[in-house]
Amino acid sequence: MKKDLDIILSLTAIAGVVILAILWCCRSMSLTAISLDTFIGVMATMIGLLVTFAIGWQVINALDIKSKLAEIEKLKDEINEQRTEINKLVARSKFDSNVNQSYTMHKLDWHHKAFACTLEAIKYGLALDDVYEELDVLLANLKVFAVNSQREHCYQSERDMMIAADEVIRKLPKFALIKDRYIDAIAEYNKFFSPVFPDPKDEKKTDKK
To answer: Which of 35, 52, 76 is the last residue of a domain?
Structure first.
């Protein structure tokens, strides 16, 4: 439709210019009895029509732009919704992965690693809306792993993982829901000093040097 209006307005403008040119030529060559007042009147009428068309065209353009902006806003909302869904899927995947890893580390008696993985799982779980029961279990596990970890040393990567996860958890909006039990588990973990050792790979690099 917009292309059709472009053509109509262009043809109207050309027709107006041609009519004015013909009238001017007829008057200049005395082919017809056209007075100056008549010529000025016709020219003013044509200019008025062209201005009216131009204003109308601007209104149509404004409406078209408004429609395009509405479409862009709608598309932006859809993208944001999809991004939110993707973030939830990623959070759910990382939540499940860390939960499974925490149980595996517990079975292997690597309780610091189990504790760190549980913190990671809680971090991602607080971003989800359907894991409240699982969070309850994780908080109980967190305290168990804290107690068991007092009998073993901790690697640097595990400690870094705990510190980073803890900082994020405490800043999350839903932290208030687990605050008391979470702080209790952290206090249990910090009751006894656990020596921190370099990771096995780091030890090998140090030996080579």
So the answer is: 76
What's the pTM value of the predicted model, to 2 decimals?
Answer: 0.64
Q: Per-residue b/e over 94-124, b at no fewer than 16 CB within 10 Å?
A: bbeebbebbeebbeeebbbbbbbbbbbbbbb
CB-based burial of residue 63 (10 Å sphere; 0-12 exposed, 13-18 middle, 19+ buried)? exposed
In this structure, how many other beta carbons lie within 10 angstroms of the beta carbon of residue 46? 18
63 with 23, same domain?
yes
Residue type, 188: E
List per-block mean pLDDT (blocks of 10 residues) for the chain, which spans 209 residues.
60 68 62 61 72 75 80 90 90 94 94 95 91 91 92 89 95 93 94 84 48
| Residue 63 identity | L
- Report the pLDDT value the prediction gives residue 34, as an integer from 0 to 100: 57
Distance between CA atoms of residues 158 and 198, nearest Å: 10
**108 and 195 assigned to the same domain:** yes
Q: What is the DSSP string of 70-102?
A: HHHHHHHHHHHHHHHHHHHHHHHHHHHHHHHHH
- Evaluate whether 152 touches 194 at the Cβ level (below 8 Å): yes
Q: What is the C-alpha separation between 144 and 132, in angstroms, rounded?
A: 19
Among residues 54, 76, 98, which one ends one of the domains?
Answer: 76
Please give the Cα distance from 149 to 36 (Å, whole number). Answer: 105
Q: Please give the pLDDT value at position 38.
A: 66
Residue ranges making up the domain that contains 157: 83-200
Domain count for the chain: 2
